Amino acid sequence: MDYLSNINWNKVTPCLVFLVLEVILEFSECTTQADVNKHLELGRDFLARGQLSDALTHYHAAVEGDPHNYLTYFKRGTVYYALGKAKFALQDFTKVLEMKADFTAARLHRANVYLKLAQYQEAKDDYLQVTYSDPYNEEAHAGFNRVDELAEELRLAEAYYRGRDYRAAVDLATRLLETSPWSARLRQLRADCYIALNDLFSAVSDIRSVNRLQQDSTDGYHRLASLLYQLGHVNDALKEIRECLKLDPEHKLCFPFYKKLKKVDKLLLDCEEQSQARNYLGCVESANKVLRVEDQVTLVVFEARRWLCSCYAKEEQYTEALTACAGALELQRDARVLCDRGDALLGLDMFDDAIQSYKEALEVEEGLQRAKDGISRAQKLQKQSEQRDYYKILGVKRTATKQEIIKAYRKAAQKWHPDNFQGDEKKVAEKKFIDIAAAKEVLTDPEKRAQFDAGADPLDPEAGRNNFQGSPFAHFQHGSPFQFKFHFN
Question: How many CA within 13 A on the CB side of residue 298?
Fold first, then answer.
């Protein structure tokens, strides 16, 4: 005890701690190595079965367990390479070469990654190093002999872009991408050319690839969202701008753009929902709000005007519908809009013009059933226009409910009841009263109303039907029926 009390613990304690840690680390290394071998074995098994993601998981664990084993990095790098994860494959192969500079297979793999990234000078250097250590390596020789030509074509493609020969630049970049598909530089170049050529759909595809190749790019997400918005794909643009805000919630370009996109997207969704709910005036209101928020981006303006055209036509405000349809068609010749315009023209009894509009829709979208049905309906309504229009007789819209029709019938019947008239006026009233009764009969019977809406008069005797067969007013055709009084609640 006296001996222990005389020990200088301040000096001894660090030494004891170090010894304990060394024992623990030796034990841990011994345990971890078994785990590493197990992960390597599982990784090989998954790799042999083509289950690359599972193989990668086990190689991750092996690298963490043994970070000084260059073979483990190499195996993981080959899986990254197979998965097309160029950045991580490059890191692993570079790590291998730092640990073992004469590992030819790793250098050849790295050269191939550089080639796919269009980093041609780096690829050339690695291929050359491989030929020094393995003079008969055909892959290295072939790669070395190609890179100068590829580098020259890349410079030429960029020169074409600077000279505004965008089509030539696109063709050359496309050819280079067959060899270097992981090159963000090439895809960005081609995207810029597509934008200059106003081929925005193709540009979107390339910018998506750029964003995958250059992860965590706020500018890339903002640019992609802007292109999608110009294409009228507001909801898709909103998704991309949210990705930007995940990286930088206060981004000076993405944040204000997000607020605008969110508002426009909600209003366009409102247009669709209101139209489906048959609240056509609500649809019109939302579409007008879109135009107040956005009046510059052509395809967004078109989408708002398209909804105005459709909902005005369904609300039977045909003159307003034609104005909105014309505004939409100025921006884009669209089959849906042409059909909506045809519906509005039908509502105004402009049958020939309506038929022409439906025919134009068929030119835009061959085989469109709605346009075919529109032509057939217009032709039947044109023929029907020479007969009675039951909706006009009662003064109701074609979308009127049964209750609205009955209400209009009662009002019209009271107004034109023959007992209210004398002399010649009584004869006019009798005819009107018969028409009113016929209108009520047809429009309150779902089957007859459907026939009439399709362009056939179910009470037309020429159509093979007895004019008022089965009708409570059938006796109107035989002498004067007005020997009694009608009473209406």
Answer: 7
